What does this fold into?
Amino acid sequence: MPETRTRTRARKAVIPAAGLGTRFLPATKAVPKELLPVVDKPALQYIVEEAAASGLTDVLLVTGRGKSSMVDHFDRKLDLEQTLAESGKDDLLDAIRRPCDLAAIHTSRQPEPLGLGHAVLCAAAHVGNQPFAVMLGDDLIDERDPLLPRMLDLQADTGGIVVGLIEVPREQTKLYGIATAKPTEQEDVVAISELVEKPDPADAPSNLAVIGRYVLPGEIFDVIARTQPGRGGEIQLTDAMATMANEGTPVHGVLFSGRRYDTGDRQSYLRAVVKLAADRDDLGPDFRDWLKSYVDSGFNSTFDSGAGSAG
Ligand code: UTP
It folds into this structure.
C-alpha cells in the first residue's frame, strides 16, 4: 500500500499545568495539583510517560507561580541518587531516575491563569507552526489502551484538529466540552461540526465529551490570540477549536472506550487511586484483600487489617 500521509506527525507535547487546583485546596496551597500522587507516582509523570510512549519526547510544561517543583521532578537529584546507590536501593534509584530519561522537558510560564486556551497560547514560541499534542494532567489514560498514537496518525492525515472523545451520561455534559458529530468511514472516528464548552444537559447537542487529549495544528495559536474570554471569563480552548471548525478546518474525534482515570476532583481522584492500586502487581493482591474485607465489614472505621495485609 502506498503511504498516503503527506503531513508532518506532531512531535511535541504541551502540558498545561498553570491552573490553581482549587478543588484540592488546601493540599494544593504549596504543592502543584499535578504532583499529587496517584498511588506512588505524581499524576504528571503518568502524562509524560504517555507522551514518551507515543513518540513525543519534546514536552513543554506550561507552569505558573509557585509550581516550579514540577520541573524538579524531571531533573536529576544527585545527592539522593548517591544515598540510594550507597545503600543498595537499586529499585528506588531506578524509580527516581526514570522521570529524567523520559523526554526533554521545557517550560513556559503562564503569568496568570486566564484559561486553558491562554495556557496553550503560552506554548506558541516553543511549538512554532507545527502540529502538537495537548495533554491535560487530570486525565490518565491506561498504558494498555493507548489513544494518543491513533490521534497523532489521524491528525497527520487530516492536518486539522483531532480530539479524544468519550460518551458520558447526559447529566455530566456540564463538566466537559461537548461535540456535535457524525460518523465517518472509520468506526472509531467521528467528524465534528460544532463544539460547546460545558453545556447544561438540556442544551447539550450530544453526550460526546472531549477528554484531555488534543492534537492541534500550529494555526490554532493565531485563533486563540483572537479568542475572547468565554465561559467563566476564561480564554477557552474549546472556543478556539469551535472557531476553526466554523472556518473550515477539519475537526475529528477519536472515540475512546478504554481505561481512563479522572483525577480532576476529589471523588474521581479517590476512585482512580483505588482502581490503579488494586490493579498493581506489587500492591494489588494485598490491597484488594483489604478492600474486600473493609467493604464486607460495612466500612467500619476502626477496621484496619485485611486477609492479605501482613504488615
Ligand atoms: P482545570 O480547570 O481542570 O485545572 O484545568 P485547575 O484550574 O488547576 O483546577 P481547579 O478547577 O481550580 O481545581 C485543566 C488543566 O489546564 C490547566 C490546569 O493546570 C489543568 O492541568 N490550566 C487551566 C492552565 O494551565 N492554565 C489556566 O489558566 C487554566
The pocket of uridine 5'-triphosphate is lined by residues 16-23, 33, 62, 110, 113-116, 118-119, 136-138, 264 (CB under 6 Å). The longest strand covers residues 189-197. The chain has a mean pLDDT of 93.
